Amino acid sequence: MRIFVIDDHPLMRETLVMLIRRLHGHASITELDQLTAIGPAVAQHGTPDFICLELKPPDMQSMSGVRELRQQFAGVPILVLSATPAQGYQELSLEAGVGAESSTEPEKLSKRQQQLLVLLDKGLSNRDIATELQISEHTVKVHLWRLFRRLNVKSRSQASHLARTQGLL
User: Fold this and answer.
1) Is the pTM of the predicted complex or chain greater than 0.70?
2) What is the pLDDT of residues 73-122, one digit of tens each?
3) Are 73 and 51 in contact (CB under 8 A)?
4) Full set of structural domains in the chain with CATH
5) Cβ 160 vs Cβ 117: under 8 Å
6) Contact 150, 158 (CB under 8 A)
7) Quick one: how far is CA 119 from the chain centroid?
8) In degrees to the nearest 10, what's the CA dihedral of 28, 33, 39, 44?
9) For 24-125, where are the alpha helices, taking DSSP H only?
10) Which helix or strand (DSSP H or E) is residue 6 part of?
11) Which residues touch 111 (CB under 8 Å, ≥6 apart)?
12) Which of helix, strand or coil describes residue 80?
């Protein structure tokens, strides 16, 4: 995956690159400090698969740069970031073609998955959950594995935290 990170603040750019490398270790990341540098970067590195763009780079007038990117890279997802609150820019970004906000809410959970969340939140072990639900420990593990995938988490504590913050309990 080829990712372009465009931000004129070196510290912010380094932070974004570090985060992306952590999430996608094999990604090819091209760092740019200006939007106008994208042409030479494409010539050197190829067309990006994803673009991460500062809300208002110094060489961009309002949302014109986003519109240009959208025209030049029609099928490429663009993520627009800002370190400061910028009222009105969310709508302008969407109008410029950045794409709809993705939902952070997990899919609807089954009754069993909701039960598991409640028991996880109580701190019960797999054995205690199995006893409570009158199922085998293996079945508990399978249910937990599916629940974690559904919630996009990797641990019991992450699942419990997400359940609390998303009102799933």
Assistant:
1) no
2) 888 888 887 665 555 555 555 555 557 544 444 457 889 999 999 999 89
3) yes
4) 2-95 (3.40.50.2300), 111-165 (1.10.10.10)
5) yes
6) no
7) 28
8) -40
9) 38-45, 64-72, 89-95, 111-121
10) strand 2-6
11) none
12) strand
